[in-house]
Amino acid sequence: MLADNLKVLLASTEVFSLKSRNFHWNIEGSDFPQYHAFYGDLYSETYKTVDTIAEYIRVLDSYTPGSLSRYAELTVIQDQTKVPRAELMFTETYQDTMKMIELTMSLFDVATQEKQQGIANYMAELQDLYGKKAWMIRSILKKGRE
Ligand SMILES: [Fe+2]
After folding, report:
1. What is the crossing angle of helices 117-141 and 32-59, to 10°?
2. Residue 41: partners with Cβ closer than 8 Å, 6 or more residues away
3. 88 CA → ligand 1 middle, Å
4. Which pLDDT band, with edges at 50, 70 and 90, does 144 fall under?
5. Which of 5, 25, 54, 111 is geometrically suited to a Cys-Cys bond with 119, CB 3.0 to 4.6 A?
């Protein structure tokens, strides 16, 4: 059901965004200014999508989860309580970004089946957003081309 799937996306986006903010604050290394800025953008751009996703759940006449314990139950993105090295942060964020892409792709299909074209359209936008971030992280992690 589309609303239930959107709840998983909502919780996962909250955790993804929170984790990006954590890395924005705690990342270290000689490229600190760029890394700090990258995670700042990642945090704010993904956080902006939370309200839209939540309101689509209400449009579908279901209640929107809004508590930390519900998010912890629903999310497919795992929380990070430690402070990994910069390269490990990017590797982890890359894996999380790929999970977000998979989620938006499967939600696009469900929304299309249920003829919720506006929601399908928004899922396509989110796939684009995470797809661009995946490209950037791959480029940050790439070795041996300089
Ligand atoms: Fe900041």
Report:
1. 160
2. none
3. 20
4. low
5. 111
